[in-house]
Write a structure and sequence with these properties.
The chain is α/β, with parallel strands linked by helices. The protein has helices spanning 3-15, 20-33, 47-50, 52-68, 85-94, 100-103, 113-120, 189-205, 251-257, 269-275, 278-287, 291-305, 307-311, and strands at residues 18-19, 74-79, 104-109, 126-128, 140-145, 154-158, 161-168, 171-178, 184-187, 207-216, 226-229, 232-234, 244-246, 249-250, 262-268, 314-320. The model has no long low-confidence stretch (mean pLDDT 96). The structure holds S-adenosyl-L-homocysteine (SAH).
């Protein structure tokens, strides 16, 4: 019995079933604070852990946008950097752009102190608990991969009820609590709040934001919650804080909350990476590689771009201030 399970049981006994968003927030905060979950030996593998090409192309996207914006003093922000692989690969590319390293300050928003330590071993930055803590004095360029999917969701079940987690004896079980909403479907309130807050900041201070995640457009999903442990599906209510809890990102809701900025996409990750030049980058890396490494690079290229792999489920969306240039990769 973990301390988290004990604490959650006490909370449910005292106050009744716990809303799914509170459950997901408590579980994920414990989960990320207590381990490095990435890669084959962990629970799941993200795009930057598959290949350096992913972070490099994001770096090229940032450097291109910053250059076309007139090379202003700026703050580059990554939300939820995980192992720091994406930002290390991106920064290597960005810092080759004349003036970038001098004019752009790096900020990482990360709540897990365990993961912060790993990030600090890879790159120099300023760390923050929230985007709000980053100074408002300069334009922001924000990047985030698989960040929104980890934010807590609510599941409205119709007829004035929403998903909650209750107790049967010592076991956590799916339950419901009353809610003020009659519609059915999921809502990720921290994601829409972030889109709104970010849009306001970009509108007043300038800049852009890039989000890559798995998700959909259209009407809200009914039940996209999933728990992943050791690269397999797990029960999201069985062992709190032991599995990664995620939900598909509702890009329609996210874009709808970003008022006063231009929204580009979402486009499929495979399409976006191809437009940014992942194929020539893979060819260049393969040219100097051993046959074994060349095969690994080719496999990574396919995994990141093929519609049957990550290429279609994962999508890319960008928000830009009205007076900033259009971001690369969104127009054919
Ligand atoms: N971007 C990385 C990691 C994705 S996992 C990659 O692609 O590999 C989600 C990341 O977001 C982790 O670093 C986790 O600790 C962080 N995170 C989750 N919820 C957060 C929150 N509310 N605020 C800040 N960071 C959060």
């Amino acid at each position: 019995m973990t301390d988290l399970a004990t604490m959650l049981r006490a909370r449910i006994v005292a106050h009744g079933p716990l809303g799914l968003d509170s459950w997901m927030a408590a579980c994920n905060s414990h989960y990320y604070a207590s381990r490095d979950p990435f890669g084959p030996a962990g629970d799941f593998t993200t795009a930057p852990e598959i290949s350096q090409m992913f972070g490099e192309l994001i770096g090229a996207w940032v450097a291109d946008l910053w250059t076309r914006a007139g090379r202003p003093p700026c703050r580059l922000v990554e939300l939820g950097p995980g192992r720091g692989t994406l930002i290390a690969d991106a920064w290597r590319v960005c810092s080759r752009t004349p003036g970038f390293a001098e004019k752009v300050a790096l900020h990482l928003v990360e709540t897990s102190h365990t993961l912060r330590a790993g990030q600090a071993a890879r790159i120099a930055a300023a760390w923050h608990d929230s985007l709000d803590d980053i100074p408002h004095d300069r334009p922001l360029i924000v990047i985030a991969n698989e960040f929104l999917d980890a934010l807590p969701i609510r599941q409205f079940l119709g007829a004035g009820h929403e998903r909650a987690i209750g107790l049967e004896g010592d076991d956590f079980v799916a339950s419901t609590i009353p809610s003020g909403f009659c519609d059915k479907g999921e809502a990720c309130e921290p994601a829409t709040a972030l889109a709104a807050a970010l849009a306001k900041r970009l509108q007043t201070g300038g800049g852009a934001a890039l989000f890559i995640d798995y998700g959909y457009t259209g009407s809200p999903a009914l039940d996209s919650l999933q728990a992943v442990r050791h690269h397999a599906r797990a029960d999201p209510f069985a062992d709190p804080g032991a599995a990664d809890l995620t939900a598909h990102v509702d890009f329609t809701a996210f874009a709808g909350a970003a008022s006063g900025v231009r929204v580009a996409g979402p486009v499929a990750q495979g399409v976006w990476l191809t437009r940014l030049g992942i194929e020539p980058r893979a060819a260049a890396l393969k040219a100097g590689a051993t046959p074994r490494d060349a095969a690994r690079i080719e496999a990574a290229l396919i995994r990141l771009t093929a519609p049957a792999a990550m290429g279609a489920l994962f999508k890319v969306i960008a928000l830009t201030a009205a007076d900033w240039p259009a971001p690369a990769g969104f127009d054919a």
